[in-house]
Amino acid sequence: MIKTLTLCLAAVIMVLVNPLNTSAQTVYPTINPIDVTIARDSFGIPHIFAKTDAQVAYGLAWANSEDAFEYVQNLVCIAKMCNGRKDGVDGAKADFFVHAIGARQLVYERFDKDLSEDFKKYLDGYVQGVNAYAKAHPEQVKVKKVFPVTAQDVVVGYIAIMSSLCHAQGNVASALGGEYDNVVVNYLKELEKPVGSNAFALSATRTVDGKTYLCVNPHMQMQGQLSFYEAQLNSEEGLNIEGCMFQGSTSLAMGVNNNLGWGMTWNHFDRVDVYRLKMPPKKKLMYEFDGQWVKLEKRPVWLKVGLGKNHKLVLPVKKMTYWSKYGCTLKSDKADEYYAIRFPGNMSIMTGQELYEMNKATNYDEFMKAINHQAIALFNIVYADKENNIYYVHHGMLPDRKDQSFDWSGILPGNTSKTLWTGFVPYSKMQHVLNPTCGYVYNTNNTPYHATCEGENFKRGTLPDYADGRPGDNMRAARLNDYFNSTPKFDFATFKKMKFDVTFPTHGAFIESLQPLFDLKEEKYPDLKEAINILKTWNRSTDVHEYAPTLLGLVINDMFNKYHMDDASFIMGFKTSEDEMAKELRMACDTLKSYFGTVKVEWGTVNRNIRGNVDLPMRGFADMLSPCYPSRVPGNTLKYKAEYGDTFIMLAKFGKNGVEQLEALQPQGNSLDPKSPHYNDQMELFSKQQTRTVTLNKEKELKRAERVYHPQ
User: Closest by alpha carbon to 424, among 330, 342, 358, 325?
Assistant: First the structure.
């Protein structure tokens, strides 16, 4: 009984500590919303103007909440471990994850030590804005206990997102579920979803007008938490940038300011390690480490789980997690085994500060100083500026695993300091390219060893194999190289055309894998004669009026589902045969005939860009420069809806005095509120490959704004 009471008291203390009130918190001035101006342009993009950075952060929080408060709240609920109240058992799993990885504990320990005063002031402005919006719109609040939000809560949210992007969630679930019990190798990693991105830059030597060009083009969810929100942030303290961010963020993840710009792309290196602890048979909660027995730290948590139709009945559920020298530690539900999960996402609280400093950087040196915080767990960076610098770096927190005698892809021994990495490979040693003589850098989620022309890349083998999880080029990289090799100098129109390109390349592993399909003979398969002829005469374009992409799309979709293929297939290729391709093509023909009475069906008839009441033909295909990763629409129809693909486009031209031309586009709309006129008002532009003009000029944006107001 005494033992039980002690555990309960410990759990209560943990809950009381969770508010993250630091001992020496600075009280910042209360922001008057009259001092913040939001100018909404004709597409609803918020241009936020104020004297101080903190006031701009207030305006950003308010504007993002106006357009996507549900998703802003989602991130806050994750940070405050209130998802169980909101979403019941499923939400409680997210709360458990945040507790297990020690996110709130890390922020409690490091907030005052690690973050700069400028950034803490900025964060305070942001949370004032979120809290003010919640107070003004109580009917939109999902969980009342979430508010007020603190600056520390926001930092916890960054840790949760970074950890999730590292795929730590899947490994935590696998450890708990017993999937690592009695196995030697960790093959349980999640399939890669088709998240990606393009980013490329040209120096003045490769442009007709002698300017520097940059393309920023992330490919993520087209709807939801990881969709992108666009805004301009402008203060009198040197902040003036337009770009995009994940919903609920405090700074822009990528974009362009007066002097420079950058894009980010998903990169693939081994970020997570799993350790099996060696536990003695008679010493409870002890584990071996370097020949000594060490006490395993218990970290209990009471999860609040909402039950019933609206989750109004909230019950406390006690769960236990642990902490070892390796970090987050869990006991298998199926065996008496303990596993530690180690990854970069919960090792820094400075993600938001790094982004803030990137937003404010005025030159290459300041930008490099910002990214050398090394607090963003992943993403390549492609950079360009007004000084004609172009730069690529395999950016992220790459674990510095010293001892390569271990199989780091498997379950590691959790009893030795030899497997306990404590730092990251510095950027100076990561794959990077600065100002190559051939005048271009790029990344399309391909190998970091191919970032520019042959002979000027980082040499392969400089880093261990785990630094390159995609050792090759995908179709987008091959297509970009088609352009780079055939076009000595680009004008801005051609640069833009390259971004919107929807043509298959002529070479690559994926193209070679498809060859048995294109080699089918009419004489051998007379029932497929019409389809074979369509494929043989195809010009490789996936525009809306083409017939071949419809056949190819049905074939590839079935194969991906059948063989559990993922985005890596566009780099690695896949194995098939003539007989299998004939069978797949026959199935595709039968499907088209059953719905349309013919195999000649335009791609835009099947492939659609759908949001709300707008339903338009969709160009592109998986792994195109302008990509589309669709899923089938339920019901008695053959229609596919784009789920992943172009989620933000920004094209910049820099001259010696700064940005000379800046264009942007949200392929659907900037608001996630279905009732907003800006929910889907950019879809028509996207279908025509048109963009919006961006000025970064306060006077011009105020003059052309359709609505100017204060956030109150």
Answer: 342
CB 559 within 8 A of CB 502: no
- Tell me what pLDDT residue 182 has: 63
**Among positive and negative, which fits the CA dihedral 423, 301, 113, 257?**
positive
| Region for residue 128 given its phi and psi (left: phi exceeds 0; alpha: psi -120 to 50; beta: otherwise) | alpha
Cα end-to-end span (Å), the chain: 53
Residue 689 Ramachandran class (φ > 0 left, ψ -120 to 50 alpha, else beta): left
Identify which of 201, 210, 211, 206 has the alpha carbon closest to the alpha carbon of residue 488.
Answer: 206
For residue 649, what is the enclosing H or E element? strand 649-655
Residues 652 and 241 sit within 8 Å (Cβ to Cβ): no
The yes-or-no verdict on residue 100 having pLDDT over 70 is yes
Distance CA 534, CA 555 (A): 14
Q: 700-712 pLDDT, tens per residue?
A: 999 999 999 999 9
Which residues make Cβ contacts (< 8 Å) with residue 201, sequence separation at least 6?
212, 213, 214, 215, 382, 383, 384, 390, 391, 440, 441, 442
pLDDT, residue 192, reads 58
Pairing of strands 614-617, 607-611: antiparallel
Contact 617, 605 (CB under 8 A): yes
Residue in the structure block whose two tokens are 């595709």: 588
State the angle between helix axes of 53-79 and 83-100 in degrees (0 to 180), rounded to the nearest 10: 90
- On the question of a cis peptide bond just before residue 194, with omega within 30 degrees of 0, the verdict is no
Please choose, from the candidates 330, 322, 301, the residue with its C-alpha nearest in 3D space to the C-alpha of residue 8: 301
Burial of 466 (0-12, 13-18, 19+ CB in 10 A): middle
CA distance 137 to 58: 16
Residues 200-224: what's their mean pLDDT?
96
Question: Which of 340, 688, 311 lies closest to 496 in space, CA to CA?
Answer: 688
Sign of CA dihedral 473, 474, 477, 482: positive
At residue 457's C-alpha, the angle toward residues 454 and 476, to 5°, is 70
Average pLDDT over residues 463-484: 95
Give 168's Cβ-side CA count (13 Å radius): 32
Q: What is the DSSP letter of 146?
A: G
Q: Name the strand (E) or helix (H) holding 93.
A: helix 83-100
- The predicted pLDDT at position 21 comes to 54
Q: What's at 542, amino acid-wise? A: T
Any idea what the Cα angle at residue 234 is, between residues 229 and 238, rounded to 5°? 125
The H-assigned helical ranges of 377-508 are: 475-486, 492-499
Size (the chain), residues: 712
Dihedral pair phi/psi, residue 584, rounded to 5°:
-65, -40
Say if residues 505 and 482 touch (Cβ distance below 8 Å): yes
Q: How far apart are CA 501 and CA 484, in angstroms?
A: 13
> 289 pairs with which residues across the strands?
292
| Counts for the chain of helices (H) and strands (E), in that order | 19, 28
User: For residues 628 and 222, what is the distance between their CA atoms, to the nearest angstrom?
Assistant: 10
- Identify the structural domains of the chain with CATH numbers, from first to last: 2-188+271-346 (1.10.439.10), 509-601 (no CATH)
From residue 439, alpha-carbon distances to 214, 250, 378, 483 in Å are 12, 34, 25, 13
| Coil vs helix vs strand at 608 | strand
Higher pLDDT, 47 or 192: 47
Task: Name the E strands within 189-312.
Answer: 196-202, 212-221, 228-235, 240-246, 254-257, 260-265, 273-276, 286-289, 292-295, 297-307
Largest CA distance in the chain: 84
Quote the CA–CA distance of 80 and 85 in Å, as a whole number.
11
* Strand stretches in 117-259, DSSP E: 196-202, 212-221, 228-235, 240-246, 254-257
